[in-house]
Amino acid sequence: MAGYPDRAGSLAALDAVASGGAGVIELGVPYGDAVADGPVIVEAGKAALANGFGLAETIALAGEFIGTHADAPPVALMTYLNPMMRLGFPRVAALAAEAGVSGFIVPDLPPDSPMTDRWLAESEPLGIDTVFLAAPTSTPERLAALGARSRGFLYVVSSLGVTGERDELAAGLAGLVERVREHTTLPVVVGFGVGTPEQAAEVAKIADGVVVGSAIVRRQGEPVVLGAFVRELVAGVRGA
What we know:
TIM Barrel; alpha/beta; 11% strand
């Protein structure tokens, strides 16, 4: 989460995650109506908003991190449609491209709306990927649309509900991943509810990548602890 616990702390967390071996960094943008996020990320977002962070500040933070790390992994911003519309699609795309941001993950951006067409018209020419999310309830028609529009990878929401750590992985996850693969040649990445190295390893057996969010944010104020945790996650995924 950008701006949590403060600007310096979030930069230290980015460094810890990169040093820990993460292949891609998903950097959360603070937003007051983050409907897809669970309590850990919501509370971190509130603190970051109080620190004056929003979409523009997050892009600037990402740019500082990328600019000072020659070997930085790709950075994708997790945000919502409203902050992008407020700042304006042309400006968001231009700022992100200048900062070196690789992509956007936007949970409330549908694949088949004029708004999406407008955003992609600004972002795609600048080489910015937009990652769409597939849910357990997505129909075959919806999966086909998501697969056609997504770039970089296709994000599979492992279970209904908000982000957060869960005791067990969702039943039927393997079948969901198989259904999604029928509609895309992109890497299939699973998130929501993955919080331990053991769970990450299990997901890595059926998917091309794993997203861990809340468990990372929960450790974000302790970079040394965070770096060690990321190394455990990476070891689990690579050993799957």
